[in-house]
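Below is how a single chain appears once it has passed through the pipeline. First comes the sequence as given, then the structure the pipeline wrote out for it. We keep one example in the README because the format questions we get most often are answered faster by looking than by reading.
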Amino acid sequence: MKGVKSFRAASTKLEGIEVAHTIHKRQFTSTEQSAFQQFTALAG
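Resulting structure:
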């Protein structure tokens, strides 16, 4: 992972990675949306 210049940017990047892993492991119960749709909905 490339370096980031601020704590906020690092925190945001790590949150996105955690959400992606959670979706990949199918820990969300939503079955009507694809993994990409779930990610974009959560990423806002």
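The mean pLDDT is 76.

See the next section for the split statistics.
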